[in-house]
Specification:
alpha+beta; six-stranded mixed β-sheet; binds guanosine-5'-triphosphate; cell membrane
Length: 593
């Protein structure tokens, strides 16, 4: 292909600002799909994604419009997958910065725009939803120019829904986004910005070729993993995968090379030739790391092996999922799993339950702690119950994020109060429009995964948007909180909390458990231990006798109904010390009231 006629770009936008709708218009224009055939939001392919209305995986698509080839590289919309956003942007020369005229610049707009600027991308500003009466084009334009640090921007005004302004946008993409450069005769240098597992082809690497070319039969090498293999197929993404003879500098496409383990082709790695390797990899690679950890137990021990097989199957297509077997004193065998974030965790749990029909208990998620012991040993603690004895601990570190909040000015006070209460440190605050303020905070990630987002929504009546990125580990001062049910320790409920908060958290845990563990035949005593002593206690009175009598008396059909109800009620419930512990007990444990 003539490289001067290629444009590689992404659309960066806050959730619901119309990215998928705009992508649909491009697909139509390219003739890939007709409007009446167009399934709503073609690019979101997984069912789960469509149901949740979010884009999880990147799907590039090659569009022929006029004389040009546009490679539209989709970016995941959720902060859990922000590393993938960054790698997708690295595959582009330009980006559409899409802002909903009725909403204005939001947290994700800011976070993604910064990333695009870091990658030196040509940014084409676009204001969407101009068909709506509440569209504020002028205000949105001002906020966008402030964000981009330019006095005078000339945004393209579109309605993705009505198809207004799309041709003009195409012209602007051609003019303002540079064609890719590179040398097709140089050694192969390709960025792997996504990968997935295909039953027939094996691992398929989604690549942007920066230099050189690749064709069937070539021997390739992956820089970070060192894996070498022979190419079995190369091609481009139309709506389906279409094999081609080769891929050259400037192209976006896929390479299959009979690879079986997706973890050997990490996103961000450089693919080169094994015969004539490039001098250097494409910069910016860092291995994707799980940031959130939780244990998964089958509610029936006999399902343990099936759970292992199911996790393995999910891992085939998800290099970010990690798990290892562990054994809880309370629940027996299960798996300690690592996820990118809470959404990723939720997706895995849902897929295990839906696609593999498993009934599970998932423990409350926690972050990883780095611990240096007095004897000089360094430990990465991913399970609070395995935290070493505090008398042996020299130093603890926990992960931090840099968070961006955008909020109407009347809620600034509440946001500050929330962030300070979550051990946040303010870095920056500015007005991005007359009514809206942007705040930047460094916060412990542990605070984010304990219902920060719900609290933020609640104190701002849903008007705040939020985005964050991981910035590394900082010193922490934590204490262990342990839960005893009728005198026996339930290790799966052990958690860590900041020392200054430990009493409050312990009481909260006790109270939350009291409200989520249902009444039982026996009395349930909940004790919570912190700093080595019991600091909170709650009791759940047993079911009353007459309630029981009602349950077990009565006619046969009622009895049957009741039994069925009980069986349904058993779902996501696990016995411990003769007490039924429901899933909600784990999920609620850290919720503030
Ligand atoms: P995520 O995939 O969740 O990030 O959302 P998205 O950014 O892809 O947004 P999507 O395209 O799903 O659009 C969100 C909503 O806005 C949908 O209900 C669209 O129909 C609507 N929408 C998109 N563009 C326009 C537009 O130009 N005008 C109007 N009135 N509605 C629009």
């Amino acid at each position: 292909a003539d490289r001067s006629k290629i444009r590689n770009f992404s659309i960066i936008a806050h959730i619901d600002h119309g990215k998928s709708t705009l992508a649909d218009r491009f697909l139509e224009l390219s003739g890939l799909v007709r409007r009446d055939k167009l399934q709503k939001q073609m690019l979101d392919s997984m069912d789960l994604e469509r149901e949740r209305g979010i884009t999880i995986k990147s799907h590039p698509v090659r569009l022929h419009i006029g004389d040009y080839v546009f490679n539209l590289i989709d970016t995941p919309g959720h902060v859990d997958f922000s590393y993938e956003v960054s790698r997708s942007l690295a595959a582009c020369e330009g980006a559409i910065l899409l802002v909903d005229a009725t909403q204005g610049v939001e947290a994700q707009t800011v976070a993604h725009a910064y990333k695009a600027m870091e990658h030196n991308l040509a940014i084409v500003p676009v204001i969407n939803k101009i068909d709506l009466p509440s569209a504020d084009v002028e205000g949105t334009k001002r906020a966008m120019s402030q964000l981009l640090g330019k006095d005078d921007i000339d945004p393209v005004l579109v309605s993705a829904k009505e198809g207004i302004g799309i041709e003009e946008l195409i012209d602007r993409l051609v003019k303002e986004i540079p064609a890719p450069n590179g040398d097709e005769n140089a050694p192969l240098q390709a960025l792997v910005f996504d990968s997935f597992y295909d039953t027939y082809k094996g691992v398929v690497s989604v690549v942007r070729i920066f230099n050189g070319q690749v064709r069937v039969g070539d021997r390739i090498r992956f820089w970070a993993s060192g894996l070498e293999s022979e190419v079995t197929e190369v091609g481009v993404f139309s709506l389906k995968m279409v094999p081609t003879e080769s891929l050259e500098a400037g192209d976006v496409g896929y390479v299959a090379a009979n690879i079986r383990d997706i973890r050997e082709v990490p996103v961000g790695d450089t693919m080169t030739s094994a015969v004539r390797p490039a001098d250097a990899p494409i910069p910016g690679f860092s291995a994707m790391k799980p940031m959130v950890f939780a244990s998964i137990y089958p509610t029936e021990n006999e399902d343990f092996e099936r759970l292992r097989e199911s996790l393995k199957k999910l891992q085939l297509n998800d290099a970010a999922l990690v798990f290892e077997p562990e054994s809880s004193e309370a629940f027996g065998p299960g798996f300690r799993c690592g996820f990118l974030g809470l959404l990723h965790m939720d997706i895995i749990r849902e897929r295990l339950e839906r696609e593999f029909d498993l009934d599970l208990i998932l423990t409350s998620p926690n972050v990883e702690y780095h611990v240096l012991t007095r004897s000089g040993e360094y430990i990465e603690v991913r399970n609070p119950s395995q935290f070493p004895d505090f008398s042996e601990v020299e130093l603890v570190e926990e992960p931090y994020v840099r968070g961006t909040v955008v909020v109407p000015s009347e809620y600034v006070g509440s946001v500050i109060q929330l962030c300070e209460g979550r051990r946040g440190k303010m870095l920056h605050m500015e007005y991005i429009s007359q009514q809206r303020v942007l705040l930047e905070y460094d916060l412990p990630f542990a605070e984010i995964i304990t219902d920060f987002y719900d609290q933020l929504k609640s104190v701002t009546r849903g008007y705040a948007s939020f985005d964050y990125e991981h910035i590394g580990f900082k010193e922490a001062d934590v204490d262990k909180i342990e839960v005893f049910i009728n005198g026996k320790k339930l290790d799966a409920l052990t958690l860590l909390a900041p020392k200054s908060e430990v009493l409050r958290v312990a009481r909260q845990v006790a109270s939350n458990l009291k409200h989520t563990i249902p009444k039982q035949l026996v009395e349930v005593v909940i004790q919570v231990k912190a700093g080595g002593r019991i600091v909170a206690r709650e009791t759940i009175k047993p079911l009353r006798k007459d309630v029981l009598a009602k349950c077990y008396g009565g006619d046969v059909s009622r009895k049957k109904k009741l039994l069925e109800k009980q069986k349904a009620g058993k779902k996501r419930m696990r016995q411990f010390n003769q007490v039924d512990i429901p899933q909600e007990a784990f999920l609620s444990v850290l919720k503030a009231d």
